[in-house]
Amino acid sequence: MGCRGAAQPPLATTEEPSLSVSTSPQTLTTKDVAKVGLLARLALSEADLERMAGELSKIVGFVSMLGELDTADVAPLAHPLDTQNVFRDDVPVASLSTAEALQSAPRHDGECFLVPAVLGESSAA
Amino acid sequence: MQPLEMSAVDLVTALRQGDITAVECATTFLDRIEATNGSINAFLTVDREGALARAADIDARRKAGKPVGQLAGLPVALKDVLCTADMPTTCASKMLAGFRPPYDADVVARLRQADAVFVGKTNMDEFAMGGSNENSAFGPVRNPWDLSRAPGGSSGGSAACVAADMAPVAIGSDTGGSIRQPAGLCGITGLKPTYGRVSRRGLIAFASSLDQIGPMARSAADCALIMETIAGHDPGDSTSLTVDVPRYTDLLDKPLTGVRIGRVPEHFAAGLDPEVAKGVEEAFAVLMAAGATVHDVHLPHAKYGIPTYYLIAPCEASSNLARYDGAHYGHRAEPGKGHRGEPGGQRTAGQTGSFESPLVEMYCRSRAEGFGPEVKRRIMLGTYALSAGYYEAYYAKALRVRRLIRQDYLDAFQTVDLIGGPVSATPAFKLGEKKDDPLAMYLVDLYTVGTNLAGVGGISFPCGFTKSGLPIGFQLQAPPLAEPLLLQAADRFQRLTDWHRRRPKTMGELKA
User: Which of A17, A85, B124, B451 is most buried when burial is the number of CB atoms within 10 A of its CB?
Assistant: First the structure.
């Protein structure tokens, strides 16, 4: 299936076939999506898993067109600037007060953020 | 001339000369916002009280002969991605509904120092992810030129509020076209500066190696004025450049004689709307009449821009948005509510087994409730592309192609000073038209993502209208730090045309 919505005029492409989704092998199953969901810390319903498996497979298929380029001799470019790491003198400077840091916290006791138990079974176990 | 119709440059002059007070000016725009925001939905927060207090303070200082800032009394709207200590900052997300940042973004602090008057915070796609503003948790913005159409995104509220005379200037952010595309679709002028020209401190991060803040206004001259205030090094953003900020407004009025502008033939391939193509070609003719020369250049890897962007941006987003954990700030799922086994609880059998711990369960539920569908989609895509076994094939691959794309630009700028072309393939599209097809929505960034991947600058400004009365945008891209030339060329174009002076016909129909 092409990425061009059937009901819409095609968007500009540099070369006609290049923006259609390849029928690539990268298909995500609902099991894959569930695993990624936990890594991403997102609770997903059965319906979410179904929908996302389809949507993500389509997007991953599309971006896989990068595979047609030979980049063996190209170094990754993580950042547009050729800047070096930046250091400053190790001098203490004013930071947020405890009250400021806690001002938007959903739960706190005036000194600390409060969270559920870090260890132990979750209710979904 | 009425304040609503005046340029930012003229307003600042009128305020300085005492032709209008800051309170009168602020009141005019606040009344306009109140009377029209119901139709446009450009603002998420309007700070009438704060704006009027600030304006009164500026008037008092001016009257007493005390110093005032460069923009004293100028109303400015801020995209709701910028942290403001005195207004909520939501990123148009339920996740940050009501969030009060403890500090101002650097650009906000600079504008405050210059005595700008903030009228409010503008609507946007949630966490700046989208090209139509339909991803806002607080309802879409409507395009002032046709209320059934999208204003573009993600800075759609900023673009629409300037187009509808609700503010003379708005600040936007641009990760893959989010200033230039809505500026183009709303008939205003928007500048995406070189990466690092403007500090990103206090800009809520989407994709840190691509994000850049810039001005959106009715003209290039107004953008130049704002750049003088917001650009510059900030020790709080180690990627902000330590290069002196030029006096952009002084560099505008120069002829374009000898300026070489590149035209990319591939931009005019199948898919470009014929009316947009015509408007863009006519813009080249205007620039040639102004003394510029036009030359074909090629960006051989341009077609890989969208897939490269839609790997790098989601990967960076999945990392940046990990901070929304329901613990430090932002939305937190109520215990029990929606949990398995609780009354009315939602089963999550798809995610077999446990959430690892009660803490992780709280994270997962808070984020599931707080984020909208597109934000979740990008977090999932980025997490997948960064996960073991896929990192090299997707993320690292995209970074390698990013280098090729940047090299295309560096090579092109060996032979031309600027690259011109369309901003978007089509004029403003209907609300809902692309909403259910994520991939179709991604393609609206086709002509704009390269600028961000290469880290260079770009400007978008109106170059005509379709028969149905929708604005057509023209884009110029320039080598790093060539903002003076971008602004000069756009300003020269605007001295020779009046497209940027046109106002939407819907103005009389807008409602509170």
Answer: B124
Taking each helix axis from N to C terminus, what angle separates B373-386 and B305-320, rounded to the nearest 10 degrees?
100
Scan residues 39-78 of A and list those with Cβ closer than 8 Å to B: 39-46, 48-49, 52, 55-56, 58-60, 62-67, 69, 71, 74-78
Amino acid at A13: T
Relative to beta strand B418-422, strand B260-263 is: parallel
Does A14 contact B235 at a Cβ distance shorter than 8 Å? no
pLDDT digits (tens, 9 = 90+) for B149-195: 999 999 999 999 999 999 999 999 999 999 999 999 999 999 999 99
H/E stretch holding B454:
helix B449-454
Check if the beta carbon of residue B254 is closer than 8 Å to that of residue B487.
Answer: no
Q: Which of B156, B181, B123, B166 is nearest to B471 (CA)?
A: B181
For A84, other C-beta atoms within 10 Å of its C-beta total: 6
Structure letter (DSSP) for residue B117: E
> If you classify domain B3-257+498-503 with CATH, what class do you get?
alpha beta
Q: Contact B280/B377 with Cβ under 8 angstroms?
A: no
Structural domains of chain A sorted by starting position, each given as residue range(s) with its CATH number in brackets = 12-68 (1.10.20)
| Nearest-CB residue to B354 (from A67, A115, A121) | A121
pLDDT in tens, B38-53: 999 999 999 999 999 9
